[in-house]
Design goal:
This protein is α/β, with parallel strands linked by helices. 35% of the residues lie in helices and 15% in strands. It has 17 helices and 16 strands. It has helices spanning 16-27, 65-69, 108-113, 119-131, 133-140, 150-163, 167-170, 177-187, 199-212, 223-236, 264-271, 274-289, 327-338, 383-393, 409-415, 431-434, 468-479, and strands spanning 7-12, 32-35, 47-48, 57-58, 85-86, 90-94, 102-104, 217-218, 239-241, 255-260, 296-304, 318-323, 348-351, 366-374, 401-407, 452-454. The protein has a seven-stranded mixed β-sheet, with helices on both faces. A five-stranded parallel β-sheet has the order 9-2-1-10-16, with helices on one face. The chain is globular, with a radius of gyration of 22 Å. The two termini are 23 Å apart.
Length: 484
């Protein structure tokens, strides 16, 4: 006799993608239960007092252009469940040693005008991406497909000609260090060499997002995003179980489908046991075990007794700051890390949320969040290197530090097993693995077991708090094991 099915689907992992998959399935009338190993849902989208009481720091993701841009999250009434966005006056700043600071304003024209001789080139390049923003987010971000409408297909092809280029090739159309730095800083989020294909795609998309949707922060911290997702899921009738770590598929109750918001290494571990080997086969499991992870991050949380003392006070209007100097310096730093080394002057991403969200710290105090890239699994303490890069543009920073919380790649993976070796992107996002993650399949969310799906950031379109991996995986399940 078959065991009684308690839910149509069980989602293992309560990060943004697992929760989005659960919401999508529940909206389609399926009964769903989310099982999360930690005490709270959220994955990398959580907030904690990691330095001193009353100082709220985002555990991993902190600034959310992709969440604001997500065509899936935008359709959910998350504001009803406590999510509120805050838009800093300037999306991000990029200070330079021997030139004026570069600023990405929400308004594209304002940004372009400040670039002087690069005004026309910037407007042409970034305006072209902003003008197809809806096409980009609705049809080009996700599993590989060609738009059916001829005009959309042509626009997609034109974007692809730029996006597939290395960032340093795209930067050749600019002559000012400011325009080149704006592109380089966004491209470096990819954790690729800026000379690699696809680095240009990250540079174009993230820089255009500053003008299309902004670089907002969540009021109260990133945890509010996943708390809102969880609240909406429970409103729809979905169930959430926390503090239950799944180590084998055999432990799960009977269901029509299982969806794994897990990295390939963990999928292989829990599905590679007795039941999983029979269902999945050696070839698929071999691909999961050979999945390539990218560089990790070393992160600092700073509790401060005042704002960061930037040499250029206008930077206090920016929610995010890219610290790394010129395009050439950033390119050298990222190439060093991809080669397995550590940069003495690393590219540093810094967020200063309490300037715009005073509830993140006690009155008159502030928080800052900063990380640099390191080789996957690095054991090198990069605290001093990060602080030096901040002080390079903000002399006197150390005098304002009340407490420092550091997190190595090992700490990051210990807190969230999906972030293998500190890789917050869910896997190397190079061209060879971009659309074939986590394995080579026509539908990347399926597995050889027709009832088992993968919905983590190890599937297209990859890392970021956007929920799209979960949503596409849910659509795949609704076409397959969960057909009505």
């Amino acid at each position: 006799m078959n065991p009684r099915i308690e839910h149509d689907a069980i989602i293992v992992g309560g990060g943004p993608n697992g929760l989005t998959a659960a919401v999508a399935l529940t909206q389609a009338g399926r009964s769903v239960s989310v099982v999360e190993a930690e005490g709270t849902v959220g994955g990398g989208c959580r907030t904690a007092e990691s330095t001193l009481p009353g100082f709220l720091h985002d555990v991993c993701s902190a600034v959310h252009p992709l969440a604001r841009a997500s065509p899936v999250l935008r359709r959910m009434p998350l504001e009803r469940h406590g999510l509120a966005w805050i838009d800093p006056p300037i999306a991000f700043a990029h200070p330079l040693d021997d030139a004026d600071t570069a600023f990405a304003h929400p308004d594209l024209q304002t940004t372009a005008r400040a670039l002087g001789p690069d005004e026309a080139a910037y407007r042409a390049l970034m305006g072209g991406v902003v003008n197809i923003w809806d096409l980009l987010m609705n049809e080009l971000v996700g599993p590989f497909r060609i738009p059916r409408h001829p005009l959309k297909a042509v626009r997609a092809a034109l974007f692809g000609l730029h996006a597939l280029q290395p960032a340093i090739w795209l930067a050749r159309r600019f002559e000012t260090p400011q325009a080149r730095a704006l592109l380089a800083g966004c491209a470096a989020h990819s954790m690729l060499r800026l000379s690699e294909p696809m680095s240009g795609a990250f540079g174009l998309t993230l820089l255009a997002s500053a003008h299309a949707v902004g670089w907002p922060i969540a009021k109260g911290g990133s945890q509010r995003i996943t708390d809102a997702l969880a609240g909406y899921l429970e409103e729809l009738g979905g169930a959430i179980v926390t503090g239950q770590r799944v180590t084998s598929l055999d432990e799960l109750p009977a269901s029509r489908a299982v969806m794994l918001d897990l990295t390939p290494r963990v999928v292989a571990a829990i599905a590679g046991r007795r039941l999983g080997r029979r269902r999945l086969g050696r070839s698929y499991l071999r691909q999961l075990r050979r999945y390539r992870y990218g560089p990790g991050v070393f992160k600092l949380d700073l509790a401060l007794d005042g704002p960061i003392p930037w040499r250029d006070e206008r930077i206090l209007q920016a929610g995010t700051v890219h610290l790394g100097g010129t395009l050439e310096e950033i390119a050298e730093s990222e190439a060093t890390i991809r080669a397995g080394g550590h940069s003495e002057r690393p590219f540093v991403l810094l967020a200063q949320p309490s300037l715009f969200d005073p509830g993140r710290a006690p009155a008159g105090r502030h928080t800052a969040w900063a990380y640099c890239h390191v080789p996957n699994g690095s054991t090198v303490d990069m605290s001093e290197a990060i602080l030096r890069q901040v002080e390079r543009f903000a002399p006197g920073l150390r005098e304002r530090i009340l407490a420092v919380g550091s997190r190595s790649p090992a700490d990051i993976e210990r807190d969230n097993a999906n972030l293998v070796g500190g890789d917050i992107n869910g896997g190397l996002q190079e061209l060879a693995q971009f659309w074939t993650r986590p394995a080579v399949r026509r539908d990347p969310y399926t597995t050889p077991d027709p009832s088992l799906y993968v919905c983590s950031a190890a599937t297209p379109p990859g890392g970021g708090v956007h929920g799209l991996c979960g949503w596409y995986a849910a659509r795949s399940a609704l076409r397959g094991a969960l057909r009505a």
